[in-house]
Amino acid sequence: MNLSLDVSWLGGPAPQRGVGVVAPFDFALDRELWRWVPDDVSLRLTRTPFVPVEVSLDLARLVSEHETLDEAVRALAASEPEVVAYACASGSFVGGVAGERAMCEAMTRAGDIASVTTSGALLEALAELGACRIALVTPYTESVTRALEEYLGEAGVAVTGRAFLGLTRHIWKVPYRSVVDMARQAVVGAADALFISCTNLPTYDAIPQLEAELRMPVISANQVTMWSALRRIGVYAVGPYQALLMDAPDAPGPLDPPRVADTTADHRQEEGQEGLT
User: Fold this and answer.
1) Where are the strands (E) in the chain, listed by range?
2) DSSP-assigned beta bridge partners for residue 84
3) Using one digit for the tens of pLDDT, what is the confidence trace for 154-168?
């Protein structure tokens, strides 16, 4: 008996638009990036080479060297993406505003492709929201957090309150509960928005909860990176109940979403992650 199935009538897969992503070697949240991407777009990720350095300003400089970016973008260019995003907050703010612009120029030269970075996308998102005073949440050490504040200050954005964890590794293991707790601690002044930094920090499901509770726009590193990259090719990012994405077709209104479940039990933190700094 011939049990073969003729599927030739199905044709090929639907055409996909490509978004290239350059991430640091320790990036562990590929799935989170995909959650902001509509079905007709595919992400094409590559990573910077491994270096034996913990999360710090030194690491931020190493993973954002122009030679490293050139090689990554040239590799991605083979798959013909329409835009390339550098998905690292610290790597794109460590050189200040001029350094971030130079990174975009270097990536564009390397692949002849439109390019964005997380920190550049952050400034775009703040301008879109009309936010010039923000509360700030990071998993970083104090020195890295301070460098982000300096970058924002250079761009004319004031930080009204902050909270940071002081971590140098395993940032992707931080549970949503810690992110929410930090946000509550950071919102102490009159802020226009809250920014949660670091592309290795999970935020997708925490954003709607925080916006409902804090009554202000909440943006995160991964969210603004995908939003900015996709808008370069005329595509809307997908993110229910997220203020930055409310102009997207069929986006839900500003209703109070269900609260995020406590995932702490399933994501035990490593040593040094117990409290806020």
Assistant:
1) 17-23, 41-47, 83-86, 114-117, 133-138, 158-164, 193-196, 218-220
2) 20, 115
3) 999 999 999 999 999
Closest C-alpha among 34, 201, 196, 193 to residue 128: 193
Place of tokens 């957090």: 145
DSSP letter, residue 14: P
- Which position has the token pair 């007709």? 40
Task: Tell me the C-alpha distance between 192 and 130, whole Å.
Answer: 8
| Distance in angstroms (rounded) separating the CA atoms of residues 163 and 99 | 25
CA distance 186 to 159: 10
Interatomic CA distance for residues 263 and 230, integer angstroms: 30
Q: What is the pTM of this model?
A: 0.88
Distance CA 166, CA 148 (A): 14
pLDDT tens-digit series, residues 109-150? 999 999 999 999 999 999 999 999 999 999 999 999 999 999
**Interatomic CA distance for residues 257 and 207, integer angstroms:** 10
